[in-house]
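Predict the 3D structure for this chain.
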Amino acid sequence: MDRPSRLIESTSRMSWSALSAILYLVLLLNIKSFPFAWHFRTWLVVVNVWAKRIIYKIPPSKDIWQVVSTPGRAWFDDLDMNNHQNNSSYNKNLDYARTDFIAHMFGHHARGVRFANAGVMIWFFKEIKPFSAYTMKTCVHTWGPKWVYLEHRFEAGQTLHAFCLAKFVVKERNGKTIPFDEYLQRCGFSISNEDMKKKESQYPAAEGLIQCEERFLSTL
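Done. Predicted structure below.
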């Protein structure tokens, strides 16, 4: 093989190697958006909680106000054109945080019921920069006869990046709503007078959101 041919072949191999490297890099950076990635990660959260509970013999929580922390990071496929975590990624990652919270708090009584999310409100305070780590802190904010309100905080150190309020309901498999007070009794939670005072003191804000929601929906 003459020199020009060898040069062309060598250049071609280098081009394919570079192209392959770029392709693998793009796939790696977007791995969280692969088909079934959401399902895999959601189940991984549940398995992780149950494995730790079995290995370390951790008893189910009896504190209804317990805060559950879920780690997160702003990867490449979470970013928008402004070079920070995009709005939709907050909701996607909240799915993992809520799953983590429910597995921690109610996983021992989750059989035969389902937790239906009815909406999320998000207030943004400070952007999450590319590849930055953060923690999603989830806890019960308050509850009423039907709806339960969870609060989520996206935090990194002392910085609050976003505050979220999620509304969900507990239902039987047949679709019948389970009053949250009844479900707490099933799960073995003992709600004290202090718990009730805290719940009632925080409920008016949630009630205001319900009224606001009803007014908006009535215009549709």
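The chain has a mean pLDDT of 89.
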